[in-house]
Specification:
- By secondary structure, the protein is an alpha+beta fold.
- The chain has 4 helices and 10 strands; from the N terminus they run ααβββββααβββββ.
- The relative contact order is 0.23.
Length: about 270
């Protein structure tokens, strides 16, 4: 992967201040950074607002659980599902509109070693601790292939719900980003006149996120279809992915299952 995508400027808030089904395909090829780990997005799903999208968490209005979705655009909405997984979304449209894009899959383009350790159950969100032994190593394509895996790889959990994913600093102040997760001054790490800034590229402060411009997917490579695993509004073609990318997750139709605090996607949230 061309490391130039990690030097790209952060997306402005105006990028997210649009309908979710417009933002969603435009997110493909963009890069989500959380600490030292970065993921190039390859699959996403859009969810609409209150009263318009039966599959959305906000369909019946604001609750304590979905309140972040009614906040400013560009913030993370992280929710817990099936009593075991976290999933991450990016809020769209102005405050009080209640819509978001679910981040379904991507390619880890920085610190795959840390993402693999997290997926293997070794090390905490800061990468501390020894990697856990596995019978079979996790393939690169599977590190963030699926919304729960993506959240684990990036170290996103309940405490990151509501974080602002829009970097407000000057793009000219961004340091160069390397596969090791180190940030150095100037292009190529050989020094330069750009000041050290954007501490999230080094993993500090913990819990800060940003979405870089990356390299948007070419229009002719973007595909769309029904969203995965939902039973309502299941034919709405708001799942978007990069055709042929090995990190895209397989489509699965809704299959009824016993659940208590479950939600299959951004849709079908239990009462809060």
């Amino acid at each position: 992967m061309d490391s130039g995508i990690l030097d790209s400027a952060p997306l402005p808030r105006s990028f997210f201040d649009r309908p979710s089904h417009v933002v969603a395909p435009d997110l493909l090829g963009r890069v989500l950074v959380h600490g030292p780990v970065a993921v190039r997005l390859t699959e996403v799903e859009a969810y609409g607002g209150p009263g318009e999208d039966p599959a959305a968490h906000t369909y019946r209005g604001r609750t304590a659980r979905n309140a972040v979705m009614f906040g400013p655009p560009g913030h993370l909405y992280v929710y817990f599902t099936y009593g075991m997984h976290f999933c991450a979304n990016l809020v769209c449209l102005p405050e009080d509109h209640g819509s978001a894009v679910l981040l379904r899959a991507g390619e880890v383009v920085a610190r795959a070693d840390l993402a693999r350790s997290r997926r293997s159950g070794g090390g905490d969100v800061n990468g501390d601790g020894p990697p856990a032994a596995r019978r079979k190593p996790i393939a690169d394509r599977d590190l963030a292939r699926g919304p729960a895996r993506l959240a684990v790889a990036l170290g996103l959990a309940r405490e990151h719900n509501g974080l602002d994913a829009v970097w407000e600093g000057s793009p000219a102040a961004l340091p160069h980003f390397h596969e090791t997760g180190d940030a150095t001054r100037g292009s190529g790490g050989s020094g330069g006149d750009r000041p050290e800034h954007a501490a999230w590229l080094t993993g500090l402060p913990q819990g800060t996120v940003a979405v870089l411009g990356g390299r948007p997917a070419e229009a002719d490579t973007i595909r769309s279809g029904p969203r995965t695993g939902i039973s309502t509004a299941k034919d709405t073609p708001w799942r978007f992915w990069i055709d042929g990318d090995p990190t895209v997750s397989p489509f699965r139709a809704h299959a009824p299952r016993r659940r208590s605090t479950a939600a299959t996607s951004v849709g079908e949230a239990p009462s809060s």
